[in-house]
Amino acid sequence: MSDFVRVASVAEIPDPGKELVEVEDRLVALFHVGGKFYAIDDVCTHDGGPLAEGELDGFTVACPRHGAKFDIRDGRALTMPATQPTVAHEVKVEGDEIFVRLKQ
Amino acid sequence: MPATAAVSGFSAASFDAFLQSRNEPDWLIEQRRAAWKQFESLPMPNRGDEEWMRTDLRMFHLDRFQVPTASLATSDTAALPDALLTHGVDLAGSTVALDGRPVSAQLDSKWAQRGVLFGSLDALVSEHGDLIRKHLFRAMNPHFDKFAALHAACWTGSTVLYVPRGVVVDQPFHTLSALGARGVDLGHILVVIEEGAEATVLSETAGSNNEPAMHCGGIELLVGPGANLRYVNLQNWGHGVWHFAHQKGLVDRDGSLQWTIGALGARLAKVNQHVALIGAGAQTQVNGVMFTEGHQHLAYNTLQHHEAPHCKSDLLYKGGLQDQSRLVWRGMIKVDPIAQQTNGYQRNDNLMLSEEARADSIPGLEIQADDVRCTHGATTGRVDDEQIFYCQARGLTRKEAIRTVVTGFFQQVFDRITIDSVRDALGSAIGRRVREFS
Q1: Phi/psi at B42 (nearest 5 deg)?
Q2: CA distance A27 to chain B (A)
Q3: Which residue among B195, B209, B250, B361 is buried most deeply as judged by most CB within 10 Å?
Q4: What is the pLDDT of residue B212?
Q5: Residue of B nearest to A65 (CA)
Q6: Chain A residues near any Cβ of chain B (below 8 Å)
Q7: If we measure between CA atoms, which residue out of B331, B273, B283, B288 comes closest to residue B306?
Q8: Distance (Å, rounded) from C-alpha A42 to C-alpha A57?
């Protein structure tokens, strides 16, 4: 089981807002919505598009390549052309720091 | 770690220090400088480019690697990994490089006496400058992209083979490049086979661990009229290596090139493998054998370029994929207007040994002549459960059954490889890697 890794400070990411972070060997899209933080793989399961560059709307992010939508809370694919969920990771906030633990 | 503490990364200062450490003719220094300028002016590839669309480079940090300048301590060379391709083979010559520095070079005197030149390109470029200058970067384009330019500027630990007219070398040559942690291999391999000559070259890479390291290499195979070259390159790095390569073959009139490419290692590989048939009657057979596991990502852009009439090209790439690995093949057959009576074939087959693996198979044809035969095909499939059951019903365990199916899958391309030691080495390397899956 991997450890929690510090990725950013709370002040860095506006609400709503997003940021691309590197956690160990993975690129993770970090979102700040409704006062809480969420993290999913920066990979659209349709064609590998960069989700962190997509448009954020409530708890939904749309892949910039072909528009597939994902729920940022659990990585569920909400619309075509994606059919598989992307991986959602654990996030915790301690004071001013955000930590992410990768889910394999 | 070697101590050139003052400079690091691929900076202008480290490049100058690198040039100082070489003892090379002016023409070569100029060539390197021109390539460096190109390297500095080009941006890193981005995912909008067709070539890089399916290969995510964002975790690769070029500034964490540097040009190899300091020399190797003898202690470093004690732990060289084993070569896979040379078991039971009598070699005509061999070279070894570690972390981008030449370690050793040997050539059997009976071939040297016949005018064959083989050894470290770094060492031979001064003494044989005229000959090498004629051929170096004749095939590979040093301005193709940022990696090609970096390679052309900073190549080291390289090998050259020159076989004069009519000389038939019936023993293979061997080159081995090894990488340790944080090592950088910028090896160039230049092979020139003159008219009517023949040779076989076995080239392999090896890594001793899975630490991050980098390879930015180039291969040039120049086959003269009526000449015959069998070239094998086996990429067997550890799983931490970032591998970028430009590999180009040029085959002249009635020449023949059999090129076998094996890939087992690397974290991410992006290889441009091109063959140009430049004289009538030239032919090439390209055999690819890939096996990936874990989170490996290997991408191949191949090109069969028919620049002359009556040429034949035949490419077969086969890949086996485990775990969450990924293989990308983007193939192109390009036929110029004068290349009538072309016979071009390309095929890519992938065998998925897990549900999360992914193979992208994209053949392509660009044909500008009207009397040609060009065929392409691509298949991707899972292992057939019925075949597994059939084997198990006859006493094989599930793992043995899967291994049998995988061997059968690769047999078609193994049958095309005419060098026994290579066939055996690839077959057993793949057999060892096959795991059971449910």
Answers
A1: -90, 145
A2: 8
A3: B250
A4: 93
A5: B48
A6: 22, 25, 27, 48, 50
A7: B283
A8: 16
Task: Please tell me the distance in Å from A12's CA to the nearest CA on chain B.
Answer: 21
Interface mutation target, options B54, B55, B57, B58, chain A, most CBs of A under 10 Å: B58
Question: Bridge-partner residues for A43, per DSSP?
Answer: none
State residue A34's pLDDT score: 94
A27–B56 C-beta distance less than 8 A: yes
Torsional sign, CA B84, B233, B105, B246: negative
Number of domains observed in the structure of chain A = 1
SS (H, E, C) chain B: CCCCCCCCCCCHHHHHHHHHHCCCCHHHHHHHHHHHHHHHHCCCCCCCCHHHCCCCCCCCCHHHCCCCCCCCCHHHHCCCCCCCCCCCCCCCEEEEEECCEEEEEEECHHHHCCCCEEEEHHHHHHHCHHHHHHHCCCCCCCCCCHHHHHHHHHCCCCEEEEECCCCECCCCEEEEEEECCCCEECCEEEEEECCCCEEEEEEEEEECCCCCEEEEEEEEEEECCCCEEEEEEEECCCCCEEEEEEEEEEECCCCEEEEEEEECCCCEEEEEEEEEECCCCCEEEEEEEEEECCCCEEEEEEEEEECCCCCEEEEEEEEEECCCCEEEEEEEEEECCCCCCCEEEEEEEEEECCCCCEEEEECCEEECCCCCEEEEEEEEEECCHHHHHHHHHCCCCHHHHHHHHHHHHHHHHHCCCCCHHHHHHHHHHHHHHCCCCC
What does DSSP say about strands B358-362 and B312-321: parallel, antiparallel, or unpaired?
unpaired
pLDDT 10s digits, B269-292: 999 999 999 999 999 999 999 999
Whole-model pTM: value is 0.92
Using one digit for the tens of pLDDT, what is the confidence trace for B66-111? 888 766 666 566 678 889 998 889 999 999 999 999 999 999 999 9
Which of B52, B55, B57, B59 is most worth mutating to test chain A (most A CB atoms within 10 A of its CB)?
A: B59
Tokens of B379: 């298949």
The model's pLDDT over A15-58, given as tens digits with 9 standing for 90+, comes to 999 999 999 888 999 999 999 999 999 999 998 889 999 999 99
Q: CA-CA distance, B23 to B46, in Å (whole number)?
A: 36
pLDDT band of residue B7 (cuts 50, 70, 90) is very low
Residue B58 to chain A, least CA–CA distance (Å): 8
CATH number at residue A62: 2.102.10.10
Reported ipTM: 0.82
Answer yes or no: do A50 and B59 touch at CB < 8 A.
Answer: no
> Lowest-pLDDT range, A41-50, B77-86, B378-387, B412-421?
B77-86
